[in-house]
């Protein structure tokens, strides 16, 4: 089995090895890439809008088809792979986690965009026909700014990217029926953020409900009504996802993964993982190994 799991830094995708922002047409980007190891992680935000090509891609072990005007967004740390078919084109944007920090007064400004939340199911968006021209124009302008050399180039690129986020955010792709209930949507997003920060130590819905100043029953009703999953399911799913991300690093033993995820008993971790995923940790590794040969 492979003994290492590649984590890519944004500089590895940059021609001058120094940039913390890359905006390019996708065909040009692919041509300049050296062979990538799949699956892999990024330590930066990564997004692609496809305009041509086929095949598929995966985000955190969920598979999606490539099709024109399908866009995906990835947050740092997510696991990624692709298997393209035919001539690929579109647009790609990579930016570091620090790229907007000095530009925006609110350090958590990007958190309001659901497609940047690191949840695979929320991060793949089909651009509707009436939005395509304006989104392509935004991306074309960002590409042109990338090719220029002047004082405010980087800030101009930031503005175009933010305009892209605002337009996609206003499409209300996620749960349109619930979008009007801003209070509950805010609660749900805060719950998701708390899970992201605390899943290693907090495993019970009542612990999160206490942090949100609501009852466990309210939290469960919110999750079931909006996502069709219980609060406990969301917590367990996040733990299982991190287990998958760690298990594809074959240099770690299953026991080391279990302890890193705060399971004191290796057998309990194996039972938990199989219940959540349907396969044992070793079975999952064999499947990944077969797919990457």
UniProtKB/TrEMBL annotation:
The keyword Transcription regulation applies. It holds the Pfam family AraC_binding. It comes from the Bacteria. SMART domains: HTH_ARAC. Keywords: DNA-binding, Transcription, Transcription regulation. The keyword Transcription regulation applies. This is Helix-turn-helix transcriptional regulator.
């Amino acid at each position: 089995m492979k003994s290492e799991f590649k984590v890519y830094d944004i500089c590895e995708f940059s021609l001058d090895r120094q940039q913390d922002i890359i905006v390019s047409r996708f065909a040009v980007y692919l041509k300049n890439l050296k062979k990538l190891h799949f699956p892999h992680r990024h330590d930066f935000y990564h997004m692609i809008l496809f305009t041509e090509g086929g095949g598929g891609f995966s985000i955190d072990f969920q598979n999606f088809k490539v099709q024109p005007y399908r866009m995906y967004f990835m947050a740092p740390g997510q696991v990624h792979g692709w298997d393209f078919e035919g001539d690929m084109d579109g647009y790609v944007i990579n930016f570091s986690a620090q790229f907007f920090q000095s530009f925006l007064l609110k350090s958590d400004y990007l958190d309001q965009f659901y497609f940047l939340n690191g949840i695979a199911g929320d991060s793949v968006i089909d651009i509707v026909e009436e939005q395509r021209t304006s989104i392509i124009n935004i991306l074309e302008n960002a590409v042109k700014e990338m090719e220029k050399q002047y004082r405010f180039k980087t800030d101009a690129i930031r503005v175009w990217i933010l305009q892209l986020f605002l337009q996609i955010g206003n499409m209300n792709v996620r749960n349109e029926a619930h979008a009007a209930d801003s209070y509950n949507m805010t609660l749900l997003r805060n719950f998701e953020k708390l899970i992201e920060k605390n899943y290693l130590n907090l495993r019970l819905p009542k612990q999160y409900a206490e942090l949100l100043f609501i009852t466990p029953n309210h939290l469960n009703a919110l999750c079931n009504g909006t996502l069709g999953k219980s609060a406990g399911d969301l917590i367990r799913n996040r733990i299982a996802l991190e287990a998958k991300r760690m298990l594809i690093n074959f240099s770690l033993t299953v026991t080391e993964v279990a302890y890193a995820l705060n399971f004191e008993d290796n057998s309990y971790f194996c039972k938990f993982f199989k219940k959540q995923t349907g396969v044992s940790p070793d079975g999952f590794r064999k499947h990944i190994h077969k797919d990457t040969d």
